[in-house]
TrEMBL record, chain A:
Keywords: Cell membrane, Membrane, Transmembrane, Transmembrane helix, Transport. The chain crosses the membrane at residues 32-53, 201-223, 235-256, 276-300, 336-359, 380-401. It is a multi-pass membrane protein. Belongs to the binding-protein-dependent transport system permease family. CysTW subfamily. PROSITE patterns: ABC_TM1 (PS50928). The lineage of its organism: Bacteria, Pseudomonadati, Pseudomonadota, Alphaproteobacteria, Hyphomicrobiales. It comes from Mesorhizobium tamadayense. CDD domains: TM_PBP2. This is ABC transporter permease. One of its GO terms (cellular component) is plasma membrane. It is found in: Cell membrane. Residues 197-401 form the ABC transmembrane type-1 domain.
TrEMBL record, chain B:
InterPro entries: MetI-like, MetI-like_sf. The lineage of its organism: Bacteria, Pseudomonadati, Pseudomonadota, Alphaproteobacteria, Hyphomicrobiales. The chain crosses the membrane at residues 22-47, 82-101, 113-138, 158-182, 203-233, 253-278. The keyword Disulfide bond does not apply. Residues 78-276 form the ABC transmembrane type-1 domain. GO terms for cellular component: plasma membrane. Its main location: membrane. It is found in: Cell inner membrane; Cell membrane. This is ABC transporter permease. It is a multi-pass membrane protein. GO terms for biological process: transmembrane transport. It comes from Mesorhizobium tamadayense. It comes from the Bacteria. Gene3D superfamilies: MetI-like.
Length: 413, 290
């Protein structure tokens, strides 16, 4: 019976069988989608949309937009190079008066202070002063209070902050700023973030390399030993894997301290102690320890699928042990190496706890700076911009992982 | 003739091959030691009677364990951790298992893309997730500028955050169990007159149960270990065990952290054994089928 004939076969209720089949198929598909939908919506609403909100926050003037409208209008025709006119001073005074009454002047001052260090105290003084003033002249009052009000740069910052959007946080995240004539590099003593990104990549790369060098031989050992022995050795890998990250970091913290067991041992053997805690060495050592199972396990599961007969065949055809390994065995492990290393690299880029607890000030990574701006300085715009750059880097790598390895292949334990 | 160890090599192996093999074993032994020793070394230190983080010299003491089990600061932290981990495990396991069941149906539309979205909370650095959630939880309903609901500094907020972080683990584990699942068993159940609910309860669930339990354990451990979200969106009321350990290292170095670490290591051993037993059970069930 051909497909064309099947189209004419009818079910009991007179509907062609082909349509009935399609209906049943659609119903099954809808049911499958219905099962996934709750989690999908949960992830979209409480994860993807907040990430979007955070990214938007990094280009918005949340503290100042709508609160400096008069000033913005008065500055619309300003050249940007010389001293603004009395109208601009009067407008800023009016804006600050209202902001002062609504207790929002502090937020404005803080925002301007990011771009013009020292502005915070000048804003505080002037807000108090204009609150008591009924009429002008404002320009003279401002200038006699602080000479900085005559600085066109401060006015450019105010003008920039009065709009809805700003590029300040993103420029700042890559050590750039808006200068008098276009975008320029920030002075070397203020440039921090490019160094932080470089450090983050360097640490993540080094940890990935170390986990590969240490993990590959062990994966090979586990894959080639008889099952009974491999299962016992596997405990050495799986126990750290199941132990809390904080416990492992605590363990390294205790071990590497100046009065810790490792230094006691060093004192006993060679009579001197080393500064190990709060160093780059401690950060990398602890991170390597934590990430080792993540690199090792994908390599191991690929190695388990390689038949031992391949290497035996190569040997019987005259290859030496090294050649047989390198030309026959090793190429088959590459998918596992890619999966393990990429996963470790992606996870290492986002480390926070370990550098915070065992690293020094020069070992803090991007995540630590995000946390610093979120919780210590309370500069949400800068935290968001740094977070968004790290997010984009991570998503690009995730996409690559997906293309190269496929999420379906991801296994745990 | 000198005795040559066999080292699992064939009889024709050359001397250099044997030397290389010996080096390989030694290297692997050192790496395995590196993996396990930090965890083991904490254990004796936790019995030191003096407030120094070093090996006990003369006598042993349960002093720090007493502090861990009876000091309010630590017992509250344990209680908080249990409450938060319990609810996020239930939520994550239900959502994750349903999604995995849907994803493993044949011809699921745009499967790879949907899967990529569902796994993404595991990949995005937790600090970024925590920062984004902090902004979102300030006004989660987003209908009015004055928030009708604030999830920051609440148990619900931390539980939802942990649920989000834990679901990828459930999806991955249950999907892995379902890849070997014989769909004809479902059809057989249906053809014998079972309703979809009955078939799920009596046929599908017993077969995927080990995967679901493993997933639930992963979800539990994810929440149980998590500290960054608690730092960002929780207040001191939601202080969990990892949060307490974090400040135990950062602010005041109390040796009680070593006792806490030892208790958590014991818990990890229990988890490891459970997951291993479940894995064997899955293999056995599959063995019966083929």
């Amino acid at each position: 019976m051909s497909l064309a004939e099947a189209a004419f076969i009818q079910a009991v209720d007179g509907v062609p069988l082909k349509i009935k089949l399609a209906r049943a198929e659609r119903k099954r598909k809808l049911k499958a989608v219905g099962l996934v939908l709750p989690l999908f919506l949960f992830v979209v609403i409480t994860f993807l949309s907040p990430l979007l909100v955070m990214t938007l926050k990094s280009v918005e003037n949340e503290e100042t937009f709508g609160r400096l409208d008069r000033t913005r209008e008065a500055l619309a025709s300003w050249s940007g190079q010389d001293l603004p006119d009395e109208a601009a001073f009067a407008a800023l005074a009016a804006d600050l008066k209202i902001a002062g009454e609504q207790r929002l002047a502090g937020e404005i001052a803080k925002r301007i202070n990011y771009e013009f260090p020292g502005a915070q105290s000048k804003f505080k003084t002037i807000t108090r002063k204009v609150a008591a003033m009924e009429t002008g002249p404002y320009r003279e009052t401002f200038l006699s209070t602080d000479a900085a009000w005559g600085n066109p740069k401060l006015w450019r910052v105010i003008q920039g902050a009065s709009g809805k959007y700003t590029a300040y946080y993103w420029l700042s995240a890559v050590d750039l700023r808006q200068g008098a004539s276009g975008i320029e590099q920030v002075p070397a003593n203020q440039a921090v973030f490019l160094d932080v990104y470089g450090r983050t990549f360097w640490i993540a790369g080094l940890v990935t390399g170390l986990t590969l060098v240490l993990g590959f031989p062990v994966a090979y050992l586990l894959a080639t030993q008889p099952a009974s022995r491999a299962n016992v050795l596997m405990i050495f890998v799986m126990l750290p894997f199941w132990t809390s990250l904080l416990v492992r970091t605590t363990a390294w913290f205790v071990l590497l301290r100046n009065e810790g067991p490792l230094n006691d041992l060093a004192q006993l053997l060679i009579g001197s102690r080393f500064d190990m805690i709060f160093t780059r060495f401690a950060t990398i050592l602890a991170m390597t320890h934590i990430q080792l199972p993540f690199t090792l396990l994908p390599i191991y599961s690929v190695m388990k699928t390689i038949p031992p007969s391949h290497v035996r065949a190569a040997r019987s055809l005259g290859a030496g042990p090294f050649l047989a390994f390198w030309r026959v065995y090793f190429p088959q492990t590459v998918p596992g190496i890619a999966a393990g290393c990429l996963l470790t690299f992606i996870l290492s880029l986002g480390y926070y706890i370990t550098p915070a607890l065992v690293g020094g000030p020069r070992d803090q990574m991007v995540s630590n700076y995000v946390s610093y701006y979120m919780n210590n300085i309370i500069n949400f715009g800068q935290a968001s911009a740094l977070g968004a750059t790290l997010l984009i880097i991570t998503l690009v790598l995730y996409w690559a992982y997906n293309r190269l390895v496929g999420i379906d292949k991801m296994k745990l334990g | 003739m000198a005795y040559l160890p066999q080292l699992g090599l064939p009889a024709y192996a050359s001397a250099s091959e044997r030397a290389w093999r010996l080096f390989f074993f030694a290297f692997c032994g050192l790496v395995l030691l590196f993996l396990i020793s930090p965890i083991l070394i904490v254990l004796p230190i936790s019995f030191n009677p003096t407030p120094f983080l070093s090996f006990p010299k003369d006598d042993w003491s349960l002093r720090w364990y007493e502090d861990f089990f009876f000091n309010d600061r630590w017992t509250t932290a344990v209680k908080n951790s249990v409450i938060i981990a319990f609810f996020s495990t239930i939520l994550a396991t239900s959502l994750g298992t349903l999604a995995a069941l849907g994803l493993s149906r044949p011809n699921f539309p745009a499967r790879a893309a949907v899967m990529a979205v569902l796994i993404s909370p595991m990949i995005v650095p937790v600090v970024i997730t925590a920062a984004a959630l902090f902004f979102f939880y300030a006004n989660p309903l987003m209908v009015t500028s004055q928030p009708l609901l604030i999830l920051n500094n609440t148990y619900a907020g931390v539980i939802l955050a942990h649920t989000l972080l834990a679901t990828p683990f459930v999806v991955i584990t249950v999907t892995a169990t379902l890849t070997g699942f014989d769909q004809s068993l479902t059809r057989a159940g249906a053809s014998l007159g079972g309703s979809p609910a009955l078939v799920f309860r009596r046929v599908i669930l017993p077969l995927i149960a080990p995967g679901v339990i493993s997933g639930a354990l992963f979800a539990f451990v994810t929440s149980w270990d998590e500290v960054i979200c608690v730092l960002f969106i929780g207040s001191s009321d939601q202080r969990t065990l990892p949060r307490q350990m974090f400040s135990g290292i950062r602010e005041m170095i109390s040796p009680t952290i070593t006792a806490a670490a030892a208790v958590l290591i014991a818990l990890a051993v229990v988890m490891l054994v459970t997951v291993e037993l479940l894995r064997r059970r899955t293999e056995r069930l599959r063995g019966i089928r083929t």
